[in-house]
Amino acid sequence: MKLKNDDLIFMYKTMVRTRKLDEITIKGLQEGKVLAFYHSSQGSEALAVGAASFLRPDDYLWAHHRGHGIGYILAKGGSGRDFLAEHYGKATGSCLGVSGFHFADPENGALGAAGTIGSVFPMSLGWGLAAKKHGRQQVTIACFGDGGSNRGTLHEAFNLSSVWKLPIVWICDNNGMAQYTPITDAYAKDDIADLATGYDIPAVVVDGMDIIAVHEAVQAAVEKARAGEGPSMIEAKTKRFREHSIGSPDVVHNQPRTDEEIAEMKKLDPIITFKAKLLEQGVLTKADVEKINNDAEAEMAEMDQFCVDSQIPDPSILNTLVYAE
Ligand SMILES: Cc1ncc(C[n+]2csc(CCOP(=O)(O)OP(=O)(O)O)c2C)c(N)n1
């Protein structure tokens, strides 16, 4: 699909909304409104939005845990308010306030998530198998990190997805870090994509800070999967601007990451670089950029108020949601 100006603007707006929602979730955590913890997605918005824009609503999505999937969900048409309310533990949340981090949005194909790194592989394999059996040309987008790629489940799932020619697009958010461990301590090669080619899955490595590069690579893989040509893998090299989990130490080998290092990464900020491109191409004016920013801020303030005002879930729902006779 050739991207039109409106598509580019949608992608820019969605990255801005993703960043603002990330910021308000961090603030909410610091103010005690967010109940558990939060893994910021600052630095990987181009991957999330580039990958999930212009998918079909019924395409399945196992989003990456950066931002708890919010960039992917917004790009797919999901609601930021449902996400925030869920994180505030309110009954208006997407999982009625009982889930929080393990966000689900079945209407937009996000059937669930789990905190166990590597569970994406067998779960998405099953969704891919279901998609193939349905025969409706649905595709499964399955995301994991560089750390997650070290789970053995990857090998079983990659192998079967290839043998069964399942419509799965495996996407690796390679930000070079798994909590405090650099990928170079845990993996001997340069590209995780090589693991896929070992199972005869076509794989490409893209600049994960470039939303258009991500989108084109994922769309090509999605088209192949819809046409019955089996799985593909995209490895996106991204950056993690924040600490692993908000409030945890930002260290590598027990040494703090330096301000200079982070400033260097932020020169590649995908929102800033895409904005510059759209301004240069005349797709956006400075006034448009300001309006998008102001609209996103107003949306966040409205969402925050709505979530603060919402009720906590009635404990009796545990009898129907969690326990069954
Ligand atoms: C099986 C398992 N081991 C450890 C953890 C704790 N944990 C959560 S996220 C994470 C880092 C994962 O790194 P990566 O896959 O590279 O994703 P990133 O957080 O860098 O985006 C770890 C170790 C977990 N949730 N599950």
Write up what this structure looks like.
This protein is α/β, with parallel strands linked by helices. Helix content is 44%, strand content 11%. It has 12 helices and 9 strands. It has a 5-stranded parallel β-sheet, sandwiched between helices. It is globular. The relative contact order is 0.16. The model has no long low-confidence stretch (mean pLDDT 96). The chain binds thiamine diphosphate (TPP).
Key terms for this structure?
325 residues, alpha/beta, Rossmann fold, five-stranded parallel sheet, two-stranded antiparallel ribbon, 9 strands, globular, binds thiamine diphosphate
In the CATH scheme, what's the topology name?
Rossmann fold
H/E element order: HHEHHHEHEEEHEHEEEHHHH
The gyration radius over C-alpha positions equals 19 Å
> Total number of helical segments?
12
Briefly say what this structure is.
This protein is α/β, with parallel strands linked by helices. It has a single domain (about 5-320), classed as Thiamin diphosphate (ThDP)-binding fold, Pyr/PP domains (Rossmann fold).
